[in-house]
Design a protein that fits this description.
By secondary structure, the chain is an all-beta fold. 0% of the residues lie in helices and 44% in strands. A hairpin with a 5-residue loop joins strand 2 and strand 3. The protein is globular.
Length: 71
């Protein structure tokens, strides 16, 4: 997966969120609201999850798959 493909409106399915004490459940789908890249190589992906949560993903720790792109 290339993070350049992840932009606002991209639909994703969470595969794992191992380091969060209250993670979004594996398999939850949601929509990307935006991304922020940091100098340490990590990327924060702001999310609107279908279950109502808004917890961001931190990549590369959290993993996901793209299931749809905005038109």
């Amino acid at each position: 997966m290339v993070l350049d493909d992840v932009r606002e409106g991209t639909r994703v399915r969470l595969l794992s969120m191992p380091n969060d004490p209250f993670p979004v459940p594996t398999g939850t789908e949601g929509e990307v609201l935006g991304t922020t890249r940091f100098h340490d190589g990590k990327t924060q992906i702001a999310m609107r999850w279908d279950n109502g949560r808004s917890l961001a993903m931190i990549v590369p720790e959290d993993t996901f798959e793209i299931i749809g792109q905005p038109s």
